[in-house]
Write a structure and sequence with these properties.
The chain is α+β, with helices and mostly antiparallel strands. The chain is 39% helix and 17% strand. A hairpin with a 2-residue loop joins strand 4 and strand 5.
Amino acid sequence: MSQLEPPDTDPRARVEPPLFQGFGPQVFEWFAGLERDNSRPYFTATRELYERDVRGALEAMLDELALSFGGEARVFRQQRDLRFTPDKTPYKTRTYGVIGGTSVPGPGLYAQLSASGLYAGTGYWRLARDQLERFRAAVADDAAGPELEAVTAGVEDAGLELAGESLRTAPRGYPREHPRIGLLRRKALIAGRALTGDGGIGRDAALEHVAGTWRAAEPLNAWLDAHVGPSTLPRETRGGRR
């Protein structure tokens, strides 16, 4: 065989992804540096660390978790979309990804790295107009509404925090004194929790934190799947005043 010829390889051979080893303290130091100097020179000078220890490690963690939860992992780009914002800093100060198409309830499982640590969450992060109508009708329902109250209380008892955009007042057609007005005002409903990055986060701690968060939020996602479900509207018509 000529020295220029490649060795025989099986075209079906699969390249194994790198094993997740955790997030060292340099990961969170990198984010702190990016917050101080959100510039192309900083990012370029530290790109190898970003690709290996930040983005690469997050991808490895999500790929490993996808073996248990199913679905496909995706990490989003670090560069910001500057077309529609007066803030022209070029990079996001967090790195995040999702696992979509999983075997558990919910539209996706989310994980994020930032200077403060590792956040995991899941839920319905943006309700389209048709979803919002179904959500409010279910919250107002005498059976489904109290069920959601119990579910959210259980999620909080498990150590998760509820998040998501809310109206400042009652939505149109609902009284301000409604017993579930806090839920009715919501335009999104997410449950998650953060783990501090001080000193780094080891492999086992990171996996247990993220997987445990997603599992604890399953009752919330199950309720949302049952009473709200995906939007059936064309993507360009899902927003508007709500």
